[in-house]
Amino acid sequence: MYRKAIIVLLVVLLAGCWDERLYKNSSVVSLAGIEGTMGEYKGYYAYPKTLDKQSQIMLIEAEGISPRDVRNNADLKVEQTLDLSELATLLISIDTVKEPLYDLLDIYFRDPQNPISIKVAVTEGSVKPFIELTKEVTDNAGGYYERFIESTEKNTIYPKLNLQMIGSTLFDNAKDIAIPYIKMDEEEHSAEAAGVALFSGQVFTGKILDPKQSFYMLLLMDKANQHARIQYMLKLNNEDVPVTGEVIHLKRKWIINEEMKKITMDFKIDVEIEEFSKNHLYKEETFKTIEEMFQQKIQADFEEVIKILQEQESDTLGIGRYIRAYHPKFFEEDWREQFASLTIEPKVKVTIIRTGILR
Amino acid sequence: MNFSLSKGQFFLLLFFIETGIIYISFQTPLISESKNKAWVLFIVATILHYLVLLFFERYYRYFYLNTFFQWVYKVYWFLMIATFLAYMVYVLASWVLPQTPEWIIILFIVALSLYGNISRPETVINIGVMFIPLIFIFIIFLMLAVPDLTWTNLLPLEFNNSKEIIQGLIRSVFAFMGAEMYLIYRPFLQKELTLNYKPILIYQLVIFVFYLISVMFSQMFFTIEEIKLVPEPIIYILKSQEVTFVKRLDIFFVYIWLSWSIITVLIFNLTIRVVHFGIGKKGSKKAIVFYHILLAIIPLFFVKFKVIETMKNSFHYIILIFTFLLPILIILWNKWRGKTCIEKQ
Questions:
Q1: Is residue B143 part of a domain?
Q2: CB-CB contact of B216 with B142 (8 Å)
Q3: What is the pTM assigned to this prediction?
Q4: Has residue B276 got a pLDDT over 70?
Q5: Most B CBs within 10 Å, among A116, A120, A169, A329, to test the B interface
Q6: Domain containing B340: what range?
Q7: Total domains present in chain B
Q8: Which end of chain A is more exposed for a tag (fewer CB within 10 A), N or C?
Q9: Between the CA atoms of A317, A320, A324 and A325, what dihedral angle is there, to the nearest 10 degrees?
Q10: What pairs with residue A347 in β-bridges?
């Protein structure tokens, strides 16, 4: 009996010896970047290394015909094999996403050791300066961009997105993605959230929504995050007054008119006033004026964003998914073309429900 | 072979037989073939399964296997286990242990099965109890994916394509693989216990909810084009979840699934033992050891992508024959002849 138990135990313990991977034997990459086009890719991998008892970020550069080839070639330049199991962020150059995005991402989905809950961002120009930047500001390169993207998500500028969500949307012909776009502030020498890159299917449309447009796109998507601040310069009594409101609740209702190929989007937005230096919100007239002005401005911004999305045939709002589910006869296989030809009319109703701790 | 089962033990055996091994993979062909209506077709298949179980309960006495059909089923179960072992090794190699030699993993599983099968039958019958809490843990982990689900993926429901409907129903049946063992173990239920529609309905509801969660989650998490690329959607969903206490949730679940599937293998082997040695007879250990040596060798020839794909694309038809059609035919034939398995005892 004991012999049998020992044999079983040994077999159990043996399974695993072959697949042991120790971090001390690997260069653990937390930030990766890729640029170039099919056949001529260039990749960058940032990993921490302790030199003179100080942690430093090392950067490895390699070229290759495919993303996997780039990684293999990068492996030739390090004393320890690159390990991407702790990858936090993937940066892709804006020129690279003009080709089908899945070509770059396949290796991340196919290899079980690669995490798929990582952040992805598109960079203005080469990714190299963005990766080099981390050497000066942090000891965790991938963590820096991960925090950067997450904080921008909380401010409702970037959509809440990870690699898996991007991959999933790439296979959906009824929805498109908008990926965080980062540019370099040359003066400050720092990364800056510069909006989102619009995709139509697998490829970048060439259009970037600036942070304000991106914010309204997220409101249209009903994806207001922790902070969603609406800010306008309103003309009150012939005076320019900055007013800021925080979106507290947003209700969205789509009404589809199949015959007229028209979609009416009703939005009811409840806001809390966060900034209004002229006060007097207790006066009914001022209160109503601000509500109405907010309403008009938001509606205009919504219309502007919808127009851009239709021009770019980029249905980031997921209207296609809704129509496919609830109006299947109206849904056409070439959805993007149909989306561009629809009449989409947003109607906004703003209600100020709070004014902070001042009246 | 002499043992008796309580109701709980009986349904626990059935649960492990029906859910082990294929729980992680049957969703992909089902959704790929029947598109958005997969979940509705699965509900229909579940109702059919319940009706079959009621039929089995009513006529199980007539499920008498002559020597020919005993060998038919023994060969069928053996080949099923061999291919399932190959599949388990393939999944482990793809997800967790790419470098570990395949024979080591097969040896490990077969060694456990050998231990279970040279012991008293109660060892195999009761071992599943330990894994019930793990199944609840798994469901809790799966719930972490709820915010990532797209509810509109469940619609539209269009029933104008008969090919999709038939294929969907056949692929749904895959979930109830091994239901024929109801007939094998039913005579072992303690004599004073009776089964009517109610306990069977409760069992059916449990297994239905457990499976339906997996079908709906897979459908809502992946688009139809995407799921065609993902052979094990449930593990993939868990891989995409981030938790603080473990880096890869998928590995954690792969091991839960492995343990759970090993129990299924043990029960399949027990069934062969029961049919081979018959009720009330003590089996020869030599035969069991010889059988396990075969079981350790044959799967090694099947651990290949093409074989696994062929298995996935054809097994639902085989299961349809051996799990539902053949038992019903045998029962009807014996009923006509008036021959019962109770008489055999």
A1: yes
A2: no
A3: 0.90
A4: yes
A5: A116
A6: 7-154+165-344
A7: 1
A8: N
A9: 0
A10: A266
